[in-house]
UniProtKB/TrEMBL annotation:
InterPro entries: Aromatic_Lyase (IPR001106), Fumarase/histidase_N (IPR024083), HutH (IPR005921), L-Aspartase-like (IPR008948), Phe/His_NH3-lyase_AS (IPR022313). This is Histidine ammonia-lyase. Belongs to the PAL/histidase family. It comes from the Bacteria. It comes from Planotetraspora thailandica. One of its GO terms (biological process) is L-histidine catabolic process to glutamate and formate. The keyword Electron transport does not apply.
Length: 515
């Protein structure tokens, strides 16, 4: 685990940065004194209900369609164990560690609000798991995005009980009991309502949303960089990105994207070379001219998603919940629709940003549309194929992204004997968005790789300082134009430069911060 200042987890909302640091960077967490006090206070109310004759859902009854059964006090510890064991029914590939850690953190935050009735000692185990880098093995399938991310969170709850399978900080897969013992963590026997409180939240889908917003914010800056490089390589014009033209349609994302492109293309010798009156083209193709409109619409979609995510980070999701006046009430706040919708919205935006990037790449390879570049940017077209098949790879990914853009949230499948008869499928929306973001990363990398080669082929004319800085970055690991060579490693090298943020950082070193 990385050394870092501990992230305080209390009743107050977590920030996006908190989630990224804990989930991705391995930062430790610390339950606040306020959190301990709130949990202790609400626990008293749950224990009162557990001793009362009046049935209380999840405390003295069964769950879902089995909520009509009153559970004898002697069976209530077994009730919680049985709930977690039976609901830890995930299947398929293991979910990424960063997703599971985000889910664990977000559940810990809900416990810390004091609205779930969980004992502080139980929350402490979850805190300790995060700090020890012990990550429950959670599987791809098992959540319908309603009644919470039940199966994924149940695998976490199983670990708190000392059961199931985990991945340790050094990457080993071990039985939970063994890993907890090695780290000095004592598992707990769940008390009344605790099993339900540990699994009844939208934390998995929310964690994926926060991670996606973080990554997509960087990728949209990359899209402005790659678009600017393509405009320059194709002898396009930056006049259409002027502030007065953009102001006629005052979408904030569009304005930001256009400003980025103006800055990236400022001082371009390549652009200056065709502003001598010899250029007969009246306007550029849509994939160049409309780049800020598309990337800008994606930015505005991310802004909406961030608004929803911020509200969710301020939420306490459980059923039933303990209210500040001591009432314990059933509710439907575990329904994942708000998160599911924006996860789907983002997948649509991702597919479109990738689609326009692929069109620009294809344009650079076609002698009929590339304004003087060699066919496929090949050294000896016919003998060499240049970037012909790199565009095929892009096209295959874009086609996949269109399928991933089909919304999960419009689907619903009844469960629990029709008690849970409408679900959000938000977990599924999050899973496909993660695949989509990987695809967009690869599509943008291929555009950057192709545009860099095209810019080199415009020599002796020099690129702008912003785009030129990206070309220079690539040339540290990828050679310039020349005869055909093994292309896959070059693509992967640029994928890593895009994914790490190095492409954006190189451009910003020359232009200043991008919006």
């Amino acid at each position: 685990m990385h050394d870092s200042v501990a992230t305080a987890v209390g009743p107050e909302p977590l920030t996006f940065g908190d989630v990224i640091r804990v989930a991705r960077d391995g930062a430790p967490v610390r339950l606040t004194d306020d959190a301990i006090a709130e949990m202790a206070a609400s626990r008293g109310r749950i224990e009162d209900l557990a001793e009362a004759d009046t049935p209380a859902y999840g405390v003295s009854t069964g769950f879902g369609a089995l909520a009509t059964r009153h559970i004898d006090p002697s069976l209530r510890a077994q009730l919680q164990r049985s709930l977690v064991r039976s609901h830890a029914a995930g299947s398929g590939p293991e979910v990424e560690t960063e997703v599971t850690r985000a889910m664990m953190l977000l559940r810990l935050h809900t416990l810390a609000t004091g609205h779930t009735g969980v004992r502080p000692v139980t929350a402490r185990v979850l805190e300790s798991l995060l700090n020890a880098g012990i990550t429950p093995v959670v599987h791809e399938y098992g959540s319908l995005g309603c009644s919470g991310d039940l199966a994924p969170l149940s695998h976490v709850a199983l670990t708190i009980m000392g059961e199931g399978v985990v991945r340790t900080a050094d990457g080993q897969v071990k039985p939970a009991q063994e890993a907890l013992k090695q780290s000095g963590i004592e598992p707990v026997e769940l008390a009344a309502k605790e099993g339900l409180a540990l699994i009844n939240g939208t934390d998995g889908m929310l964690g994926m949303l926060v991670l996606a917003i973080h990554d997509l914010t960087m990728l949209l800056k990359t899209a402005d960089v790659s678009a600017a490089m393509s405009v320059e390589a194709l002898l396009g014009t930056d006049y259409v990105f002027s502030a007065d033209l953009q102001a006629l349609r005052p979408h904030p994302g569009q304005a930001a994207a256009a400003a980025n492109m103006r800055g990236l293309l400022d001082g371009s010798g390549i652009m200056a070379s065709h502003r001598d009156g010899s250029c007969t083209r009246v306007q550029d193709a849509y994939s160049l001219r409309c780049a800020p409109q598309v990337a800008g619409a994606a930015r505005d979609t991310v802004a909406h998603a961030a608004l929803v995510a911020g509200r969710e980070l301020a939420s306490a999701i459980d059923n039933p919940v303990v209210l500040s006046d001591g009432r314990v009430e059933s509710n439907g706040n575990f329904h994942g629709a708000p998160v599911a919708y924006v996860l789907d919205f983002l997948a649509i935006a991702v597919a479109d940003v990738a689609s326009i990037a692929e069109r620009r790449t294809d344009r650079m390879l076609d002698v009929a549309r590339s304004n003087g570049l060699p066919a496929f940017l090949a050294a000896d077209p016919g003998v060499d194929s240049g970037h012909m098949i790199a565009q095929y790879t892009q096209a295959a990914i874009v086609s996949e992204l269109k399928r991933l853009a089909a919304p999960a949230s419009v689907d619903s499948i009844p469960s629990s004997a029709m008690q849970e008869d409408h679900v959000s499928m938000g977990w599924s929306a999050g899973r496909k968005l993660r695949r989509a973001l990987d695809g967009l990363t690869r599509v943008l990398a291929i555009e950057v790789l192709t545009a860099a080669r095209a810019i080199d082929l415009r020599a002796p004319h020099r690129p702008a300082s912003g785009t030129g800085a990206v070309v220079s970055l690539l040339r540290e690991s990828v050679s310039g134009p020349g005869p055909d060579r093994f292309l896959a490693p070059e693509i992967e090298a640029v994928v890593e430069l895009v994914a790490s943020g190095a492409v954006v950082a190189a451009a910003e070193a020359a232009t200043g911060p991008l919006a």
